[in-house]
Amino acid sequence: MEQLLFPDIDKTPADYEAMYPPRNLGEGAKVTRFAPSPTGFLHFGSLFAAFIAAQTAGKDGVFYLRIEDTDKKREVENAVEGIVNGLKDFGIIPSEGAISDNAETGAYAPYTQSRRTPIYQAYVKDLVSKGLAYPCFMTEEEIAEIRKAQEAEKALPGIYGKYAKYRGITAEEAKKRIDAGEEYVVRLKSPGKPDGRIKFKDEIKGKIEIQENILDIVLLKKDGTPTYHFAHAIDDHLMRTTHVTRGDEWLSSVPIHLQLFYVLGFKAPKYAHIAPIMKEDEETHGKRKLSKRKDPEAAVSFYAEAGYPAGAVNEYLMTIANSNYEDWKRANKTETIEKFPFALNKMSKAGALFDLVKLHDISKTYISTLDTETVYNAVLAWSNVYDEELYRLITDAPDYARRIFSIERGNKKPRKDIGKWSEVKDYIAYFYDDLFDGEYESIPNVTSEDARAILERYLEIYDPDGAAEDWFPQVQALAEELGFARSPKDYKAEPDRYKGHAGDVSSVIRVAVTGRRNTPDLYSIMQTMGGSKVRERITAAKDALK
Length: 546
Description:
Number of helices: 23
Distance between the termini: 99 Å
CATH architecture of the largest domain: 3-Layer(aba) Sandwich
Helix content: 40-55%
Structural class: alpha/beta
Radius of gyration: 33 Å
Largest sheet: 4 strands, mixed
Number of strands: 13
Shape: elongated
Number of domains: 4
Strand content: 5-15%
């Protein structure tokens, strides 16, 4: 029978076992994979699954990218490039696997299922020879009739038992049908029993008991290509996968998968089923899955376009992967995420809640710890793709841009003004005439007349070469001269005696130079701008108060 079905397959499972031997890794090293279908954009949930697989493998294991493209009808053009680049954008770099639509790297290639068809057929041929698989010539009409009968009988739907009419087909009958041009699939001859149960330990959800598979599932489709179920079992074995991390929508398929490993004589990998990422639903006030259709943040491209750094996104992913990460990070502020002892069994069984505000806060903290050169290069790379004007400004005067980014960077308590690179243009706008809009925020409790007097007098005493430690005392002296208290404390003690305090005076100068009341250190800003620009700004603001 097997030679009838596979006359051109000359390799055996033993040949492939020799071609793909066990990996030479250290004891306890894990081999994981991210195995998407190229059927659309990279989803945030998929990025999370890839992140979990990469963290599970760690630096001592292997994390590879496999493309499961057996469903050609749903395949999207350039989807593989999108997957590879989407992972790369967030620092998730597989050590093996697909690196583009047509290129792969690694000793266990090919990593694209459509290029592995002869391998699957060799294993199916072996199963047929052992009486563990058979050709099924059922037409779609016959299968539809069986479904109707099962509905009427309230029986489990599918092909099994008395419904598997070709289970006992002979080689002679199969040959007649093939010679007559009849199409067929190849089905597993399931050893499952109707009352059978299987138990297994899920690395995230713990011990699970479930009914075993009794269906004669399809192994090869009519065109000779494998089903997902069969292909994944062969691939995970030959690529020597130790841990399969995937969405918990696959939990119901575990009986089929474990049965395939048993029938094939393989050791099954450990499974870890990840609960979906949830989101608060404003309409129902409940929770729902993050949706490709409803939520722009479901697409990984959303984060790249917004300019969230890979390191910040990874830190956020770790907070929803292991809830103890935040405590660990507080206790280990200078350690990188790679040092965190990630554990599958500490993942949420119910599904973590997506929180864009939290991601933004984490990103602000993350960016505040980066050095000037890292920030400059990151903004350069982002703006080169997404903001032509910003790119031009920071490349026309790179040293000036670096000085801007260095303000209050490296302090014990650095400012957290930037949460994503798309916020940079607004953050630095007042440093550039091309971006400065000439609008001034109002200052409470300071009259236009007093503001003008402050600016006129400050222009007279302003020293571009003055030392940092002398700057605020000079402002205090100016405040006292113009009827303001030297400190908020003095003003609070005698509010009727003063117009305000030195903080109000410095706010007038700050708004004149930047247009804003809240900025980093004003002395550093003015030193970066230079004396002529500062005078020009103060003069313009003074004139605007006429």
